[in-house]
Design brief:
The complex is a heterodimer of chains A (453) and B (299). With 453 residues, chain A is of the alpha+beta class. Chain A folds into 4 domains: 96 residues, no CATH class; 97 residues, Elongation Factor Tu (Ef-tu), domain 3 (Beta Barrel), CATH 2.40.30; 105 residues, no CATH class; 122 residues, no CATH class. Chain A is built from 8 helices and 23 strands. In chain A, strands 1, 3, 4, 6, 7, 8 and 9 form a 7-stranded antiparallel beta sheet that branches. A 4-stranded mixed beta sheet of chain A has the order 15-23-14-20, with helices on one face. Chain A has a 3-stranded mixed beta sheet with strand order 10-11-12, with helices on one face. Chain A is globular and about 90 Å long. With 299 residues, chain B is α+β, with helices and mostly antiparallel strands. Chain B folds into 2 domains: 44 residues; 221 residues, no CATH class. In chain B, α1 runs antiparallel to α2 and α6 runs antiparallel to α7. Chain B is elongated. Chain B starts with 5 loop residues before the first helix and ends with a strand. The chains are: A alpha+beta (453), B alpha+beta (299). Chains A and B meet through α1, α2, α4 and α5 of A and α2, α3 and α5 of B.
């Protein structure tokens, strides 16, 4: 939405507006002396007014809606420079915390263990203060940087002993994450001592603006204790592997992206089906890392979600006397066979010709086929359990929608490839039926063809 | 709060004594007018978060942020009211009070008025009859009432509501809307001519698309564990007498005995929701429902 009240004015547009008003009021403003006092006053005033319009537009965006509000560092369609700033709480966080009672989850520095082995020749007892030592990861990030870490507690490592202490990354965010054994370098050395991290060192990124906006919108979903569908859905999709939910900052998401809730019952039974980004069946697996009420390697994602819905302290999602049943959605594989054409000039390295999926590795056609795979995976991940046009939870996937995906393939962000001559021959019919609790997942694109013209 | 021209007038006052030249004074005033425009734009923008002050094109954002679904046949006044009362509406979702407060604003008058110039309420009485269901035959019915002033009461009904004949099923409910007098001017009893559902209105009274929106509003607000059986709309008021039955009131929860109407229809829960005409039994071919109400089955 490009409302003028959200858009910054330029100095030129402000100057033009002032001259327009003044001329209408009878001012003779047609013969400026370049550099003259009047000219300078006009320019100075125009710049001042333009600054004010920026503030006005920013304030409008901050208050109007969650979608128009941003924090510094977020993508802002009205202000391209905004994403270049470092994050600090701004308009979006203000609206979220003040109006929706929801704080944005900040980036946290990666934390984990590191083991000191003090067995070198001539070793002596080592007494170390908190944050005295600096370590570095072996692997570099895509920008070439190698994250740094510091010991977060004081310790003593006696001669010929091994001690494990916690470390924390200097810079917050997942870019400082390290897998086991990646941190073996001490920037500040200790004679006779070697180090290595025996476990993962993990941090979190700043909550995405889109996720934060969703959290704000959902914040009121649990305000009713009467068992509306929203309550079931909210606990499932915000559940975390340490038994927390909602806007929790601890643990990790259970990865449940959708929950279908039967909103009609004459038996007292409420049935809920879950799916994750890659379907439902994976949710029957055990959570590898868990805490709180959940047992790592034993509690399944479905069991965890069911627990949160039925046992969360202080929350009434399932009213008394109601029988709740939560289960993973049944995956229904939907293979897609398509043909698509596009100009060879639109894809770097493309050579005219017709190619069969998946294309030879490293070729332009393989790149496009992979992008199509990604697009279909995203389409099916976002599709509703039970599909479209549901009756009692059973609906369809439209083949025409699958064809439409092929017009939205991107190799560069925001630029669709110019596809044409697009057909989808599988599924053969106009729709693919999905039963109650069934979820369509991408079944691959074997036999599909791509033609560079 | 609004202050169009404020900066312009202040500027004119303080600038006049030292910027008396016509052209420069005009420029300064024009600049101040531009500032006024920007300030006003800021005000308009900030008011987009205020349902009672925003322009209607802000409804979509408010609906998305507050998770209040808006309906195509809902009046502007209702949209503003429901968006402003989103916390109350979401807080009470899942109970019959929540269902009723979600649809009662549909009837708000122009500008959100609750009464017309004669003091007659635009808002309807609403009742919900909830049957607990019991395979053993002990089904109970509670009646929940929201009056035009917003007062909510409930009571155990003297009869076990059974319009669908499925007394073994749990948590079924039916909503009754008593159309306010100033709404019902266009309402007519079923004239028994032509089709009872002509596709535009149902029983020649209430626009079917309005009923569809109300039904969706109830479905949105109901509990996951309940079943919405149907919507009944009547131009009679709770205290009115049923035509031909003096002293009997429409859908009166205190009434314990029900009987057939003189025209062969019944005003009672009779387990014949699926058909407006009796297809068997002693009333074969006669109307199964009273002509003074509109019935919208959900299933």
């Amino acid at each position: 939405m490009g409302l003028f009240i959200f858009t910054d004015e330029t100095v030129a547009s402000v100057r033009s507006k002032i001259i327009g008003y003044a001329t209408t009021a009878g001012g003779a403003l047609s013969n400026w002396i370049a550099g003259g006092v009047g000219f300078q006053i006009l320019n100075t005033v125009s710049m001042t007014v333009q600054e004010f319009t920026q503030i006005a537009a920013k304030a409008s965006r901050a208050f109007a809606s969650l979608d128009t509000a941003t924090d510094p560092g977020d993508v802002d369609p009205y202000d391209p420079l905004n994403q270049t700033y470092a994050y600090v709480p701004g308009g979006l966080s203000d609206v979220g915390s003040n109006f929706y009672g929801t704080d944005r989850i900040l980036a946290t520095g990666a934390v984990g263990p590191i083991t000191f082995t003090n067995t070198g020749p001539g070793n002596v007892d080592q007494h170390v203060s908190a944050f005295q030592l600096t370590f570095q990861r072996t692997g570099a990030n895509s920008d070439g940087s190698r994250p740094l870490y510091r010991n977060s507690s004081a310790f003593t490592c006696l001669a010929n002993q091994v001690v494990t202490i916690p470390i924390v990354a200097v810079n917050p965010g997942t870019s400082s994450n390290a897998t086991s054994g990646q941190i073996v370098t001490m920037v500040s050395t200790l004679p006779g001592v070697t180090v290595s991290n025996p476990g993962s060192v993990l941090g979190t990124d700043l909550q995405l603006a889109s996720d934060y906006r969703d959290a704000c919108r959902e914040a009121a979903s649990l305000t009713s204790p009467n068992g509306p569908s929203d309550s079931y859905r909210y606990l499932a999709v915000t559940g975390r592997n340490d038994g927390t939910w909602g806007n929790s900052t601890t643990g990790n998401s259970l990865g449940i992206t959708q929950a279908y809730v039967s909103n009609d019952s004459t038996t007292g039974i409420v049935a809920v089906y879950y799916k994750g980004a890659s379907g439902g069946s994976g949710l029957n697996g055990a959570i590898p890392t868990a805490s709180g009420p959940f047992v790592a390697g034993s509690t399944t994602y479905v069991q965890a979600a069911n627990y949160l819905i039925t046992n969360t302290p202080g929350v009434i999602s399932v009213p008394d006397a109601i029988t709740f049943s939560g289960q993973a959605a049944t995956d229904v594989s939907v293979p897609v066979v398509y043909t698509v054409k596009m100009p060879a000039s639109a894809v770097s390295g493309a050579i005219a010709g017709t190619y069969t999926y998946p294309g030879s590795a490293g070729t332009a056609q393989a790149t496009v086929f992979a992008a199509i795979d990604t697009a279909y995976a995203a389409y099916f991940a976002a599709s509703a359990i039970g599909g479209e046009d549901q009756t009692a939870g059973a609906g369809v996937i439209y083949t025409e929608d699958l064809r439409g995906v092929l017009y939205q393939i991107q190799l560069n962000a925001g630029v669709n490839l110019p596809a044409y001559g697009v057909t989808v021959t599988t599924p053969a019919g106009s729709t693919t039926a999905l039963a109650l609790g069934h979820d369509a997942i991408y079944g691959g694109a074997a036999s599909s063809t791509l033609t560079f013209v | 709060m609004s202050f169009p021209g404020l900066i312009q007038s202040i500027g004119a006052r303080i600038a006049a004594w030292y910027l008396g030249g016509k052209n420069i004074a005009t420029v300064i005033e024009a600049a101040n007018l531009t500032l006024d425009g920007a300030a006003d734009g800021m005000l308009v923008g900030m008011r987009r978060s205020q349902p009672y002050r925003c322009t209607t094109d802000a409804f979509a954002d408010l609906s998305k942020d507050r998770k209040i679904r808006l309906y195509p046949n809902e009046s502007e006044a209702s949209k503003r009211y429901r968006l402003a009362h989103w916390r109350q509406i979401r807080r009470t979702r899942g109970c019959h009070y929540g269902e009723m407060i979600n649809v009662q604003p549909f009837f708000l008058g122009p500008g959100g008025a609750t009464v017309d110039s004669s003091g007659v309420s635009f808002l309807p009485w609403i009742r919900v009859f909830h049957q607990s269901g019991d395979p053993g035959g002990g089904a109970l019915t509670t009646c929940h009432t929201l009056d035009p002033l917003g007062n909510y009461t409930w009571q155990r009904s003297a009869f076990a509501w059974n319009w669908d004949g499925n007394t073994s099923q749990w948590s079924r409910f039916w909503m009754v809307i008593y159309l306010p007098a100033n709404f019902a001017t266009s309402f007519a009893y079923w004239d028994r001519l032509g089709s009872w559902d002509d596709g535009v209105s149902i029983w020649d009274g209430v626009p079917s698309n309005l009923l569809a929106s109300i039904v969706q509003g109830v479905l949105e607000a109901k509990a996951a564990h309940s079943h919405f059986g149907g919507l009944i709309v009547t131009s009679l008021q709770p205290t009115d007498s049923i035509p031909g039955f003096s002293g009997s009131h429409p859908f009166d929860p205190t009434r314990s005995a029900w009987s057939a109407n003189s025209d062969g229809s019944t005003n009672v829960p009779v387990g014949n929701w699926a058909s407006p005409i009796w297809t068997s039994g002693p009333s074969f071919g006669l109307n199964s429902r009273p002509g003074w109400a509109t019935f919208y089955g959900i299933g």
